[in-house]
Structures are given as structure tokens and as C-alpha cells.
Amino acid sequence: MKHWPVQDARARFSELLKASLTEGPQVVTLRGVETAVLVPVQEWRHLRQQATPNFKALLLAKQGRGNLEIPARGGQRRRTPAAAG
């Protein structure tokens, strides 16, 4: 990935855009800090689709998405009902 200072990215935006299409994602920096990434729209859609599974995919997944601990049943003592009277 090539890094572009924001001034260069602004001045040569069409070159930045072409580079993202031919070379892959391009990073834009602001004062030396990575700030944004320009990626082709197909790659963006693919990343978004992978990041947020639909409800059907969640239900059919072999792995759970969190740790839900269910206590064992029958281990607690039960109270006897009070006699009505």
C-alpha cells in the first residue's frame, strides 16, 4: 500500500483513484498519521458483506458469536410448599 500525504492526495486525486484500482488500497495520511484508505468499490462491498453477517448466516453458523454459559439443571434445592390452612 502506498501512503499519500493529504496535500498530494488532494492535488493528484485522479492519480490516487487510478492507483487504488490498479495497485490496491491507498492510504492517505494527515500530518504523518494514517487517516483514511481509498479502496475500489467492489472490495469495499466485499469487506462490508463479510463484516456483517445476515440473520440467516448467524442462525446457521457452527460457532456461537459469544459465550453464553447455561447452568446445569437440577442442582438447586427446592422449597416445599407451605400448607394451606
CATH homologous superfamily grouping of the domain at 2-59: YefM-like domain
The percentage helix is 40-55%
Could you name the CATH class of the domain at 2-59?
Alpha Beta
Strand order of the largest sheet: 1-2-3
Mean pLDDT across all residues, rounded? 88
Shape estimate: elongated
* CATH topology (level 3) name of the domain at 2-59: YefM-like fold
Number of strands: 3
Strand content: 15-25%
Cα Rg:
27 Å
What does this structure look like?
- The chain is α+β, with helices and mostly antiparallel strands.
- The chain has a domain of 58 residues: YefM-like domain (YefM-like fold, 3-Layer(aba) Sandwich), CATH 3.40.1620.
- Helices cover 40% and strands 18% of the residues.
- The protein is built from four helices and three strands.
- It has a three-stranded mixed beta sheet.
- Strand 2 and strand 3 form a beta hairpin.
- The chain is elongated and about 90 Å long.
- The mean pLDDT is 88.
